[in-house]
Amino acid sequence: MTDQPQHAASPADENAEVRFTDKRRVDPETGEVRHPTADHVAGPPGDPLTGAVGAVGDAGDAAAPVGDTGELDAARSMAAERLEDLQRVQAEYVNYRRRVDRDRALAHELAVAGVVEALLPVLDEVELARQHGELADGPFASIAEKLEQTLARFGWERYGAADEPFDPTVHEALMHTESPEVTEPTVTQVLQPGHRVGDRIIRAARVAVTAPED
Hints:
By secondary structure, the protein is of the alpha+beta class. A three-stranded antiparallel beta sheet has the order 1-4-5. Strands 2-6-3 form a three-stranded mixed beta sheet, with no helix packed on it. Among the domains are: 72-118; 120-154, no CATH class; 155-214, Roll (Nucleotide Exchange Factor Grpe, Chain A, domain 2). The chain contains five helices and six strands, in the order αααααββββββ.
């Protein structure tokens, strides 16, 4: 049987020093945590799929595809249209509320005016009785006072007095005279008082007017 050739150990192999690296993070002798030296610092991370090494934030990130801006522009345009619609609806609602409030106030004033107009004969009798001194005391005086106070809470007012300037918008002249003692048309006598609710004239005050002489 033929002997297998054996390789003789070379002097270089005999003198080669065996080296090993202890990668344990805890020193087995002292129990302290080892801090990595510069030789053990890992290099730049590579791609986990391909293994390619590259720097973080390099040109590969810049090469990422840019999203389509068309959809963003369309969304902004739609949002602007919806905002305009909302503002228009809000303005219409504000105008509607104003009309409703104005119509409600007008309806209230007309209702009170209708009641006062229906009570004019009663109010005239009350005023005549007061002028003749019949409302000084007694149950009728209390009833008349309560009636006028109730109407006043709804904006009713009796007006017209002597010596006030004549105003054709609130006065009705039934008598007319001239006198050098006045410098402008003046109410000298109230024949029948006027009635109004707020700014609405229910019946103009019927008066005698004195004007200055020509």
